[in-house]
Protein: Asl1-like glycosyl hydrolase catalytic domain-containing protein
Amino acid sequence: MNRRCVRGIDNITILVSLASLAALYLPLLLPHLLPMPSQSKRGLCWPTSNHGNDEPFPFTKPGSKISWLYNWSPAPTPQVSSLDFIPMQWNHIGIDALPANLQAANAKTLLAFNEPELPDQSNVPVDLAVKEWLRCIEPLRKQGVRCGSPGISSAPQGVVWLKEFVEKIRARGGDVDFYALHWYGEEVGQFYDHLWSTYFQLPGHEEGEGRKGVWVTEFAATVRVLLGAYFFLFFSGFWVVADEVWQNWNVDAPLSKEHVETFARDSVKYLDSLEWVERYAWFGPMRDCGTVGKWARMLDDDGKLTDLGKAYRDA
Structure:
């Protein structure tokens, strides 16, 4: 065999080896490098309390714009095979079962601790969240699961908590794949301002390869109550003075139906236009049970879709 033939065989061997390496490692790398498809951003934050009473199938008719669902739990919602189920590890309790839960749900994406900075939510201190993330969630990232950050509220301490968390896990070789943010308020402009200002405080917002996206996993138009007195609030180690407080879902003074529906229509259109917003879920696909605004709910008292629910599904 002449030298040219030997060189040709060597080149073929190298190409085959490179192809084998690509086949082995690309499935692990792609979930962290590629954003979610921009054409299927709209989802449902479906309460587990709906189970047995209301089912999500009215949101899933042919042509529906809704493509995914989460339920603040690692266990799938029944009868949603047409939607991409995203498990959530709500807090650190029971986290050792997470790998088995993800496998049972056949899930490739994970949402983490829910509003950990708030005492009445998952209430997970930063250092505990870092410890459990690195112990239980980061190994799943290394195996190819796409892991979202803990989902923070729009309270001032939310972004402070998340910045500290990301800094600490990065210092120990960990990371998040996207950021999960929540917002409740009155005006659509306030919502937009909050999204931009929060996102640009977080590492990885810069354009280019490795840019991190955002999932807005809770948002709605609620109501603001301006109180004529000053209140001292303790946020992240500092006492601050506030001359207004937010009272969400005020049953005595709800925002008007027109206001909420206009907010929803304009905001989802805007979120669809933002390249760095990967997914979003309006709060909420439920009846008026005291935890959702009168006109922000997408199910009526009989469990049927409201006008807002139909528009969110179809428009």
Observations:
- The chain has seven helices and twelve strands.
- The helical segments are 3-33, 98-105, 126-142, 156-171, 188-199, 257-273, 307-314.
- The mean pLDDT is 84.
- The chain has one domain: 41-314.
